[in-house]
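Subject: complex prediction, re-run

Hi both,

The earlier run crashed halfway through, so I resubmitted it with identical inputs.
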Amino acid sequence: MENIEIINLWKQYDEKLEKSLSLNQKIITELQQQKAKNALKPARNYKILAVVVGIVYAVVVAYFLYHLNPIASIFLKISIAIHLLVTVIAIAMYVRQIILISEIDNSQNIIQMQQKLACLRASTVNVIGICFLQLPIFSTWNITFKMINETPLNFWFIQMPIVALFTFAGIWLFKNVDIKNMDKRWFKIMFYGVEWSSILKSGKFLKEIENFEKM
Amino acid sequence: MQQAQQEFLKIIETNKRLIFKICNSYCQNADDREDLAQEIIFQLWKSWGNFNNDYKLSTWMYRIALNVAISFYRKEQKTTNTVLMGEHLIEIVDENLEEGLEANLNALQKFINELKPLDKALMLLYLEEKSHKEMAEIIGITSTNVATKIGRIKEQLKQKFSSQ
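This time it finished cleanly. Structure:
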């Protein structure tokens, strides 16, 4: 069958539909009255809730840090300050995602629109990557000058290697927890489970879009 | 408002085949097809006020309908809020084509169904005989890229139908 015959076949199908297809006008009129339906609304509402909870949490941590100032060690204060900074960055990333959701426009070209949607879903992974930056604080919050002076061997040969390991792991995860690494084995182990499946599918679709754009 | 609604109804009536063909290509299941058709019409109506006359009406319609269809196709939970329970938006009277044509049409639809969502969009536009320029505007790739991809689709189609 030649291509021209295939086009003609499609035209015949179109003619058949012209005769046999009708749309229920009552339902269309009903659809015109609907206002609140939006497929991205649940995702947006979830992110708004996360931002509100995040802000309340950040305020509590900031309050705690402020009142801890005269009594706590410098190491504990720096650890909490890093935790607070990472929390604020994560909140800002969620705010950015909410803005992106509000900018979604179905009348954009397909590549632009689908890329935006897939990036939006996949960006949850980036928030997790940022959160890994606070990994070192779990090994620094309990350090005191007393510990350094009284048990220097323990500090330099046990505590410090742990701090170095956590710092290295935190920076490595921050750099590598990215949807681009979704095919790597460690990534698959880390993001295994149904709750990650839609994010991983978005990552695959982003690759599909990238390949499609190539000649 | 009333005038806009009427105008929109007319446009949907004129383009009902376009909507149906897209729904049929992205959904195998009749209930999903019904939901997708409702979603497409709803999104078209939502964007109707912002329709930009710089674009052709068909470009605007294809962009929205295909974007909604691709997003719907990729969604895990497909159910949407169907309006007027018990009634159907799509009503179709079975009108058979000649036996040979019906078989070829089924083979063509099977071929379309097996394509990836973006290739499917391109294939539909090719069958609707859209110009390379319009396809490029709808999809968001260059006209040269459209031409290359259409060439490949033609080749695939030829192989598919020569093996029949």
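Chain A touches chain B through 50 residues (CB under 8 Å).

- K.
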